């Protein structure tokens, strides 16, 4: 047995989880820094350029979440389960199937935004110079979106075998290239002409290309437990990835819908000042996602490998250990934000009305962040087990409580405070339901019933 697989199957749970988590956490922080770096440089081009890039950001971020977290989770889960079961040939064949799936989806993303991008950005409120600059940036980054999808597939192949370090190295290499390249291409330097906002797009493409190249080298040179080999394409192997990846994609879309609808609710309840405060406060909630992904990526590999090996009790202990760790970390951040809200809000502005609305949000919702971290970490663990029904159902319930409950609370009380109470209640129910269902053994009840 490969030493890495042996570690996933027999190593001490908490030390192994922490050992695997730090590279993934570093990766997510590096990826988050890309957006901050680009935004800082593009801001020097004026408000129209900044607005144009903001129009493109949601679609590009959604593509990264789908390729890395959703379909990527499906790839890691399928490979981990195959390796855990000792099916090396199947794990090797899954590499090609993963590249085919993500390659086709990368081409589809390019086709969508190259042909319908302007219409999409108009729907988001873009017009005039901002829309024109959005198209310059969008046409570059989405023309080469296949690099993002293929890089995510290769990173997920490595993670499925328990290798978290090489994907971290590859992604950080792309970020290191982007840091000096972005200002050079935006503003020009020596013989390099100034490309403006399009230059920011080309810097992203170069960083994505370098990341994909390093990951391809890692997989093709045998540093992955699942090796790339030409093999006949088989529907069961596609299905093994998609049964997790497509359901996980629904969860990603669900999260986006929750944010959009709660923003509309807050706007109705409190107006533009409330939206500014809610948006500023909830940025902290967004930062919890990459933080929890640092634990989530190893949870997919550890749970999947143990499920594949038939070690169900250990898989469950791994999931609950990861969930408890995520709860402690995210609850600590949430309580700190609730007690000291201006320490966070003051980073983004000093308008008293924004600070007031943001403080109200953090004081009500911050203490519930631990349940968000708990549910999200167990969502990743469920990817490893190939069982996503309960996280998806809990996410739907969270959406209903946050939006419908929030509307009802505002209609009855007319108070924004009770809208935020509904948002907090949605998070508590989400985390508690996912944790309770998994702890009760729902992952394996179907197999037990078939056995009887």
TrEMBL record:
It holds the Pfam family MatE. GO terms for molecular function: antiporter activity; xenobiotic transmembrane transporter activity. It is found in: Cell inner membrane. Keywords: Cell membrane, Membrane, Transmembrane, Transmembrane helix, Transport. NCBIfam families: matE. This is MATE family efflux transporter. It comes from the Bacteria. GO terms for cellular component: plasma membrane. It is a multi-pass membrane protein. It comes from Teichococcus deserti. The chain crosses the membrane at residues 94-114, 140-158, 165-189, 195-220, 241-267, 287-307, 319-341, 361-381, 388-412, 418-444.
